[in-house]
Every structure is written in C-alpha cells, then in structure tokens.
Amino acid sequence: MAEEKKKVKAPKLADPVASSIDVASQEMIARSHELGVETIFDRALTMKPCAIGVQGTCCKNCSMGPCRLPLPKAGIEGEDTRKGLCGATANTIAARNFIRMIAGGAAAHSDHGRGVAEVFLAVAKKETDVYKIKDEEKLLAVAGHLGVATTVEVDGEELDRDIDEIALETAEVALNEWGKPEGELLYAKRAPKARYELWKKQGVIPRNIDREIVEIMHRTHMGVDQDYKNLIKQGTRAAIADGWGGSMLATDLQDILFGTPYPVQSEANLGVMKEDHVNLVIHGHEPILSEMIVAVAQKQEMIDYAKKKGAAGIQLSGICCTANEMLQRHGIPLCGTFLQQELAIITGACDAMVVDIQCIMQNIANVAACFHTKVITTHRIAQIEQDNVIHIEFDEHHAVEDAERIVKMAIDNFANRKAEVMIPQHKAPIVAGFGVESTEYHLGGSFRGTYYTLNDNIINGRIRGVAGVVGCNNARTKHNHDHITVVKELIKNDVLVLTTGCNAIACAMEGLLTPEAAAVHCGAGLAEVCETVGIPPVLHLGSCVDNSRILLAATEVVKAGGLGNDISEWPVAGSAPEWMSEKAISIGHYFVVSGVYTVVGVTFPTSGAPVFNNYICKEFEDIYGGMWDFEPDPVKHAHMMIAHIDKKRKELGIDKARERVMMDFASRQAL
Ligand code: SF4
Ligand code: MSK
User: Fold this and answer.
1) Ligand positioned closest to the Cα atom of 66
2) Which of 319, 327, 328, 326 lies closest to 269 in space, CA to CA?
3) Cα-to-centroid distance, 52 and ligand 1 (Å)
4) To pair with 32 at 20 to 30 A between CA atoms, which of 75, 191, 199, 632?
5) Atom 8, ligand 2: which residue's CA is nearest?
C-alpha cells in the first residue's frame, strides 16, 4: 500500500523560451515535450554541477582522493592552508586540472590534424586517388613554411620543382611535427618575430606536438610537478603546439586537399531541412568524411536514387564544426550549433545523422530511438555503445564506397519516417568563408591584396579594434544568448568580429553574417567600412581548428605595419562567451600566450585557487602581453574587451584619431 501511495514525480521540463533565444530551438524544445523525448535542456534542470569541480579544486589524480578543496564562502584571509592528502595546495590542484584541460583540447585538435596529415601523405604517395591536391598555391606556401624547397637549381638555373615531389616532402615534414625527436615546432616562426623571441626567452617553444601533451599527463600525475608556475608553463607549450601546430597544420592541409575557402552564400538554422527531401545531417569535425559525402550526395545517380524512393532530392546540412567546414568550401547550409544536435532529430525529418569526432552527445542515440533516424558513427575512435547506432568505419582508401553506403542508407530510410514531421520554418541567409587569403583580397582588392586597408581603418578609428569571438554552447546558460549579446555589443561599438565554431553558427542564425547586418547593428565607423568593402561585420573564419586563421590574420596585421611589432600591441581581444569544451581552454590559452586579452563567460575553471587564478588572469599580462579574464554578464564581458581595445589604442597613440572620426560622423548626421 505504502508503495502505491508513493507519488511518481513528473520529470522537470525546460522552459523553451528560457532555454534558447532561437525561435526554431524553442519550437523544437516544446515539440520534444509533446513527444516525451528528453533533451539536454531538461537534464540541465536536474543534473547540477559540483561547485568544487567548477572552481577547479577537486583532485582525483590518485586513489587517496578525490580531495576536495572548496573555497570558503568568506574567501581566504591570510594564508591559504587548504591541502589534499598528499599536501597538494589549491593552486597546484587547479593548475594541474587546468593544464589537463589544455592537454585534452590540444590532443583533440592535434589528433584531428594528424588524421588530415595522414590522408595528405596517402595522397602524396598516390595510394588513393579519391582525394586530390586542390590548392597548389597553398601547397607551395605551406612547403615554404615547413622548409621544403619549391625550386631546384639545374645548371645554374633556378627551376620549379616537381609538384608531386614537393607534396610528398611536405607531407613527410608535416607529419614529423607530431613526434620528431629533436628541434622545435617549425610553425612557431610564423608568429611575429617579437612573439617568437618572447616564447624563446620564456622557454615555451614546443618541441613537437605529441610530446607537450604527453608531458602534461606526466607532470600532473600524483607527486610530480607541484609548482603552479611551472605547471602552466607546460600548459603554454602544449597550447602553442595546438594553435600554431596541430590546428594550424589541420587548417593548412585541409585547404591544400579540399580548397582554401572563399566567400560563399548559404543559409543557417533548422529550417534548412526540407520535408520532401532526404535529410542527411553531418556532425563532428573532420572534413575528410564530409568532403566525400558532399561529393557523393551531389552525384546525379544518388539524386535519381532518392527520387526513385519518393524524395524530391537530398538535403545535406551540418552541425558543429563539420557544418562550418562544409559551408566554407561548398556552401552547404548550417543546421545548427552544438545544442541543436538532438533538436535536428526531433524534427522527425532527419533520415540519418552521420558523426565523426568531438562534440557528439551520446544522447543522440536515445533521441534517435524515438524516431526513424539512423545514427551512423564513422570514426575508429568515436563509437556509441547503443544498439540502434550503426558503425561504418570510414577510411580514405575506400572513401567513395563508404560514403555511398552512408548516403544510400539515408535515402533508404526516407520512407521509414514515423512521427509527424515538424521542421521549424526559421533560417537566415549568410555569407561565410573568410580565410586569411580571402580577407586579404577583400580588404586590399585584387591588385594590392594586403591587410594595409584594415590597419588603415583601425588607425583612422573607423574600426575601433578586432575581436575573435569563438567557442561552444553551454547548457548552463541560455542557448546563443551570450554569444549574440557579446557580438552585437562589439559591432555596435565598431569592433570587427572574426568568428569560428559554434559562435559562428549562432551569429549565422541571427543574421549577423550578411553585409546588410552592418547598417542595422554596427556603429557608424564599422558600418561605413563594411558597406564600402561589401563584407559582413562578423566574418566567418571556419571551424575550431580554424582559430589558427585568427592567429595568422592577427600576424598579418602586425606585418602590414603601423600597429606595433607584436600581436599584443594592437587593439585585439578574444572571447568565448558560452564555452564548454576542453578545446576552448586550449584555444583560449594559445590566444592568451600569443598576446591576446581573452574573456570567457559561464564559469572559470580556476576560480577556487585565487593565487593561480590571479597569475593567469593578471600577472600573465606582464609576461605574455595577453591574459585570461572572466565575466558571465555578456554586456559587461563585451565592454571589458572594448576597454582593452581602447587601452591598446591609447598605447599606440591612435585614440585621438577615433574621436575625430566620431565627430566627423556626428557632423555628417547633423547635416
Ligand atoms: Fe589527493 Fe594528492 Fe591524490 Fe590529488 S594526488 S587525490 S590531492 S592525495
Ligand atoms: S563544435 S568545440 S561545441 S565550438 Fe567545434 Fe562547437 Fe565547441 Fe564543439
């Protein structure tokens, strides 16, 4: 009887409007409740984070722990006496945890890069002919950066070297960057000279990519490195190995193989899915898979096959960074951000969700089980244990066959749709694909492609500064709210925004990636530049590994002259308003040690260790010219970046120019 009386608690359901600023997502969250399908938005209500973990002061690096060192509510007065069983202080524990996050992020990006380098080597060795070298110009540029000769002397005459030879040597040298036994990361020299010298002086130039990550795992093992300054030094090496190594090589080699991005038009949000089409949603990070699926899905025989099965065609779209990769090279529409992966399935129109690596929630399998959707994992290292998940291991040696199998599986599944289809009718037009090369062309024109025009507009004050706003969604904060608030506040104040990852997708969904957005959202100076040049005020630079493009764009600004000798000297700032992944910490750290003031939202993972926190959020500026900062309020967050930009303008002596420009505009308006 007592049993019967027990009331069954109804599950807590997320309020759609409180969960996301995006109407399409709100509709799908409401739809999930109608259908009784649980999503991350609901789980965020019941699963609360541990406060000590959030503060970064829980250590479980040996089985005597976990040792938990909460920050006293009243703060720490006098000496901080908190210790783990072994005596590890809060600073040691927070620093160990922080650099383990860097190791996780750097490993993810760099292993992605290694995968691309291996495919590139297979192409160079002619072991596969399904992938080809698409951008020879970029190959020659990359060869130069890796010290591979592109010319050869014959009888005193300098001749072009055979392109196949260059490709093979470039592939071998590139792959060697992950594990060479001696020397230093070759790409470190791509940073401005002053930055390279600073890294050298600090002793943080990476030896090779893998070694710096492995050494973090060693140093943070129980009883090894117990000095927070020495620990973060290793974190710095690994982060540089990511941004200026694994990620940069991933970007470069992808451009060589799949093409360097140039501006393309497309659309963004769940509304890109089409009810009468086979909807194939690709999710993850590596374009090795998606490139082949794009090629196969566009074959006439596949389209005919889809028609034979009753569909009007095949609609490809993407989630997370695979979305950005397919967009910037082929104009394939963006389906959504990290937090929309479950929602795409809840439309009832997703015939297959094909995933590779990173940011794939295990729960897509549970959601898919409520619909007809086939979830297909494709990567050796990223599988899901549920029965309804199909694994088709993708391999560059039989890439076409694998892609055909996957596309056919999606087509065959079109007829199996169970639930009533409900695709939100919201999408926005976009212009994306601004690589370092195309930005140069856009700003400088075809005859004098250079960053000089950008510098000129920064110096004259029309552009107040530049911000790299990047990173994930986080279910602990309203979906896209902080991304969009930060970006709108920046462009309103004449700060040009460069974006990647899920911030780029959020901006796309909000209509900020169009030249027309300039007139609506920007301050007068930035609007004038965007209108003159014909660019959006928010430039889409690609995926998470493409944050390396932001580093190189920042370096080009230094090279173009007039704004100091190092990245830390000109008015630039970084931000990840809704970060959640370890990759975001690695990215943030390589931004910081490259000289960029970088603010994050939501939570800060070292807040429970005030001394270490102060070291990376304050003292770091004296060492690296860049530092971390934290502000969860997105308006204040943007204004901290603007204040930094203004500080740099003042240091460069260009603050007065901006005042004059603003006066000019006011008088023009009065006229
Ligand atoms: Fe505790 Fe030290 Fe073991 Fe960490 S390494 S769990 S602080 S005893
Ligand atoms: S996908 S790492 S949620 S940006 Fe690169 Fe988005 Fe963050 Fe994944």
Assistant:
1) 1
2) 319
3) 15
4) 632
5) 359
* Whole-number Å distance between alpha carbons of 317 and 653: 47
The alpha carbon of 562 and the centre of ligand 2 are apart by a number of angstroms equal to: 34
Ligand 2 centroid vs 444 CA: distance in angstroms?
31
Does 380 share its domain with 478?
A: no
List residues near ligand 2 (CB under 6 A). 285, 320-321, 338, 358-359, 471-472, 501-502, 543-544, 581, 583
**Same structural domain, 551 and 622:** yes
Q: What is the DSSP letter of 477?
A: S
342 alpha carbon – ligand 2 mean position (Å): 15
The ligand with the least distance to the CA atom of 64 is: 1
What is the model's pTM?
0.95
Q: Which residue's CA lies nearest to atom 7 of ligand 2?
A: 472
Looking at the structure, tell me whether residues 404 and 494 fall in a common domain.
no
Which of 396, 416, 436 terminates a domain? The answer is: 416
pLDDT tens-place string over residues 205-244: 999 999 999 999 999 999 999 999 999 999 999 999 999 9
Query: Among 203, 266, 274, which residue's Cα sits nearest to residue 240?
Result: 203
Residue-wise pLDDT tens digits, 33-82: 999 999 999 999 999 999 999 999 999 999 999 999 999 988 888 899 99
Q: Identify whether 515 is preceded by a cis peptide bond (ω within 30 of 0).
A: no
Indicate the number of domains in the chain. Answer: 3
| Residue 186 falls inside a structural domain | yes
Q: Minimum-distance ligand to the CA of 505? A: 2
Residue with the nearest Cα to atom 2 of ligand 1? 86
d(CA 56, CA 631): 17
Indicate if 226 and 289 belong to the same structural domain: no
Predicted confidence (pLDDT) at residue 669 exceeds the cutoff of 80: no
Smallest CA separation from ligand 2 atom 1, residue:
320
Tell whether ligand 1 has an atom less than 6 A from the beta carbon of residue 67.
yes
Q: Establish if 49 belongs to a structural domain.
A: no
* 134, 187: one domain: yes
61 Cβ inside 6 Å of ligand 1: yes
For 284-328, how does the pLDDT look when each residue is reduced to its tens digit (9 = 90+)? 999 999 999 999 999 999 999 999 999 999 999 999 999 999 999
CA of 167 to the centre of ligand 2 (A): 31
Domain boundary residue, one of 219, 237, 258: 258
Indicate if 371 and 432 belong to the same structural domain. Answer: no
**Domain for residue 21, yes or no?**
no
Q: Which atom of ligand 1 is nearest to the CA of 59?
A: 4
85 domain residue, yes or no: no
Residue 411, domain extent: 270-416
How many angstroms is it from 545 CA to the middle of ligand 2? 10
As given in the structure block, the two tokens for residue 507 are: 């901006």
Do 488 and 388 reside in the same domain of the chain? no
Q: How far is the CA of 60 from the centre of ligand 1 (A)?
A: 6
CA-nearest residue, atom 6 of ligand 1: 65
The CATH number of the domain where 386 resides is what? 3.40.50.2030
Same domain, residue pair 412 and 505:
no
Q: For residues 135 and 259, is the Cβ–Cβ distance under 8 A?
A: yes
CATH label of the domain that carries residue 102: 1.20.1270.30
Distance 231 CA to ligand 2 centre (A): 26
Q: What distance in Å separates the CA atoms of residue 376 and residue 384, rounded to the nearest whole number?
A: 9
